[in-house]
Amino acid sequence: MTAEAVQTFGRQVVRAAPRTIARTEAVILGGRGHAAAVIEALTGQGITVIGCIDDDPAMLDREVHQGVKVIGPSERLEGLRAEGVRLAYVGVGGIGAHGLDEGSIRARVFNLLVAHDFVVPPVVSRDAHVAPGVAIGPGSVVFAGAVVGAECRIGANVLINQGSQVCHGVTIGDHAHITPGATIGGNCRVGRGSIIGMGASILLDVVVGDFAIIHNNAAITGQVPDLTEVYTDGRRFERGPDAAFV
């Protein structure tokens, strides 16, 4: 899927809206750094971000990026949808290396947008390379400099961050995060809600289970079970069932 294909996807799924709202107008839920990165990724794709939603009162009217400001709290979503705004994007970033709190928020944000009947399209930066025919789920973002190879399948609400390499035939589960500079070898599977840290590498054909965390610069040559944390030096830690947030 190319950036142009993402635009086509948006036109296909947006139903008729009131005359006062353009079919390409969108809102972002989140008003900090990741929201700015999403605005940047949308540059040149024909989408007009009318504002960001953030529940922190101190953020109101603050500029996020390129003139886009925070326009109010999440209570505004229902009204925006009623006005005819159809497109929305997740503006909350990835999961921290030592916990899943931010990731759980990201999953909740995605689910909240879906519950309000917004369309949450995938975003592919014009400076990313995605092979033709790659399947990318709703809410997922492929940032600048990332490469996604042939026959990959990317789930919903996935982050393929800057400069990461996802080789041919890889499957990535919903809500996973491939962080900047990570490399996923051919035919690997990365499970739901898992994080591949910056500079980490996953050998071809390896399965990383659900809700796993691979630390920065770790080299993974064997299977990683569900709910496992792998440190840079290879030590493994079982995280426990409470870590499964979606």
How would you describe this protein?
- The chain is 17% helix and 26% strand.
- With 246 residues, the chain is of the alpha/beta class.
- The strands form four sheets. Strands 6-9-12-15-18-21-23-24 form an eight-stranded mixed sheet, with no helix packed on it. Strands 7-10-13-16-19-22 form a six-stranded parallel sheet, with no helix packed on it. It has a five-stranded mixed sheet with strand order 3-4-2-1-5.
- Residues 1-20 and 96-102 have low confidence and may be disordered.
- The protein has helices spanning 3-13, 33-41, 76-83, 101-115, and strands spanning 25-29, 48-53, 63-65, 68-72, 87-90, 123-124, 129-130, 135-136, 141-142, 147-148, 153-154, 159-160, 165-166, 171-172, 177-178, 183-184, 189-190, 195-196, 201-202, 207-208, 213-214, 219-220, 228-230, 236-238.
- It is globular.
- It folds into two domains: 3-115, Rossmann fold; 123-236, Hexapeptide repeat proteins (UDP N-Acetylglucosamine Acyltransferase, domain 1), CATH 2.160.10.10.
